[in-house]
Structure formats: C-alpha cells, structure tokens
Amino acid sequence: MKNHHKTLLNQPMMLIRSGFTGLGKSMMWLGSAQFSGRIIRLISSIVLARLLMPEIFGQAAIVLTLFELICTATRRITSAALIRMDDEQCTRHLRSANWVNWAVCLLACLIMLLLSYPIAVYYQDTSLIFPIAVMATSFLLLPMGMQYATLNLRNNKMRIVGRANLWQTLIDAALTAILALAGFEIWAIILPKVVVIFVWIAIHRYHNPLPQMQSEGSIQYAQVLTLLHFGIPVSLSDLTNTLRQNIDYLLIGYFMGVEALGVYFFAYNISLGISLGLIQSFGTAFYSHLCQRNAVEDDLSAKYLSSIAAIMAITVPVILLQSALSNWYVPLVYGDKWLSTDAIDVFLFLCLSGLVRPLGEAASQLLLANGLSQTNLKMNILLTMSLAMAIGIACQFSLITVAQTVMVSYLISSPLICIYSYLKVFKNNQKLTSVGESL
C-alpha cells in the first residue's frame, strides 16, 4: 500500500521525465535557440523602447501583423503533408510541392501589395504603404528555402532548424538596434525582417541536397491536389490561429488608435516573447514527433500527455517569474516613459494568459498529426470568432480590460480544446480498435 501511494505521488514527475525523453533533443535545440533569440530580442527591444515612440511601435505592429497573417497561410501549405508521407511518397511529391510553394508565395505577395492602400486608408496613415510593399517582397524569397526547411523538419534535424531561427533573430536584432540608433524609425524594424530571410535560406540549404526529382514532364495535378487537400485546411487553421493571436492588434488599432496599439504591442512582445517562443518550438517539434510513430512505438496517448507535462514544466515557472517581477523590471529596463501608460498592467495580464497556451498548441498539432485538419480548422474558427467578439467589447473600455479579456479567454478555452482534442483522437482510436477486435 505504501509503495502504491509513493508511485501515485511520483506519477507527475514520471510523466514530465517521459516528455523530456520523447521530445528531448528536438526541444533542446529548438528551445535553446528560441530562448537565446528571445533574450537577444529583449536586449534589442530595450534599445527600441528608449529610442522610438509608441506611434512607431503601432505602425510596425500593423505592417508585421499583416505580413504574419498572410505568411502563416503559406508556411505549411506543402510541408504538413510531406512530413506525414513515407520516403518514396515524399520524393515523388517534391517537384509538385515546389510548384505549389512558388504559386502560393507569389499570390501572397500580390495580396499584400493590393492590401497596402486600403490598410493605409483604414488607419488614415499613407506612410504605411511603402513599408507594407517592402515586407511583401519577402514572399519572393521564401520558396528558395521552403523545401529544404521541410526536409530538416521531416528528418527531425531540429539542431539546424534551431540554428536558422537563432541566427535570424541575432542578425535581425543587431540590424534593428543599429538602424534605430541611426534614426531610421520604422525602417529599423522592417528592413532587417526582409534581410534575415537570406540567412534562413542559407542555413537550411547548407549541406542539405534535395532527393532526386523527376526533371522532365509537366506538373502532376493529382499530386498538387493531394498536397492542397491536406495543406489548405492546415494553412487555414494556422491562419485562424495566428488571427486569434493578433486579433487584439487589429481591433485595438481600429477602436483605440495607433498610439494605444503601440503600447499594447510593446507590452505583448516583452511579456509573451520568451514563453511564446518556447511554445512555438514545442509545436514545431511536437508535430514532427507525432508523425514519426509506427505500430511498435509507445502509446500515442502517453506520448501526448507526457509532452504536454514537459512543456508546461518549462513555461509555467518562466511566466510566473515574469509576472512577479513586472512592477520592477519594466520601468527599470525600458524607461520611465512607459509608467505614464498602461503597459505594466497590460504586461501582467498578458503574461498570465500564457500559462495555458501550450495546451492549445498541443491540441492543434495532435489533430493535424491524426489527419483531422478539418476539425482543427473548425475549432480555430470558433475560438477566433469568440475571442474577436470579446475583445471588440473590451476595446470600448480600456487597454487593461482588453488584456484581462485575453487572459480569461485563454485560461478557459485552452484547457477545453486540449481535453476535446484528446477525446476526439483517442476515443475514435479506441472505437476503431474495438471494431477490429470484434471482427
């Protein structure tokens, strides 16, 4: 009885250790790269906070949010399907995947260019047009590295993926600080984002040849349809997820103005920067981890739960520490001018909203890895619409109310969708197993 009681007490630690074992190297490389990158961005943001006014942060938030929303729809348009395929299928689909990547990125560039003027009119700021157009050129570069990045993810080469992210962040931060000191204002934030794409491409392509592809003949449209059939719901799910993460920017900018958006954008980045970096690393590694299973591998349910336990054991202490020190280090590090705004209170509530965000990320990757991209899309649309309505109402009051609304929404929704996804996948698997045994 005593030993049984001790076993029950040790189960949480066993679960966490199992998660670290399963995702160990992947999370180590990606997580350390993201953490280092976020520290570098933190140092860069200190420089920016002391040199740039909230209005500049607001303009940058508009440009970067638009780019992130469009880019999210292109990021996994082919890679999500290729990672799930066996080696022969993957090689056979690479040429069609390259064609899809170029077509989608060219379309994304065109969409962003077309949206530049309406957005400038919407925010009554024509100076936004040129920065948006410059950011749009990034889509002309991305296809040069997309297939190579997919192969690194597929082969679980997270050390290379992490290295690409880290060097991107390092060079981005250095260029941003230099240009800000030189008085480039919004261009200090925008130009480095385009330049570092060359770094990302070079690292992913280095010593990473593509498998031999058929070089002759026309595009096989059946392969294109196969990629799009899986990739479009994944991309739309990622888009709605990113929209949910950025919907507060859009609504604050519309209802409360660019200056309020600048304060919120600043608080958001310094509060959730490190934890969101770790969560994104977890999502990237977790999807590849789940897709690399076979019949003799450990139970997927145990892998899912242990991985969640592991990422929560990392992120929760970081977030709680940030929250506890908010009143001290925000004015000390970033300057007294932020004391006249709501930045500290907004910072605190946004920090706390990150406590359960890994649960939502895990739920989404589990559905995708089990081919339930349509379910994932519907779930993300519902959550995004609910959050948008809540934030729209909160914007009628104050920035602090918006941050409180974001916190409460995530604290409620993330655990619920984690439980829903778990039941959806594993109850279905149990039913299929029972039917198979009865036959």
From TrEMBL:
Q: How does it sit in the membrane?
A: Multi-pass membrane protein
Q: Which UniProt keywords apply?
A: Cell membrane, Membrane, Transmembrane, Transmembrane helix
Concerning Pfam families, the annotation shows: Polysacc_synt_3
User: Which InterPro entries does the record match to this protein?
Assistant: Poly_Biosynth_Transport
Does the record's keyword annotation contain Transmembrane helix?
A: yes
- Is Nucleotide-binding among the key words of this record? no
> What's the domain of life for this entry?
Bacteria
- Name-wise, this protein is Oligosaccharide flippase family protein
Species, as recorded: Shewanella subflava
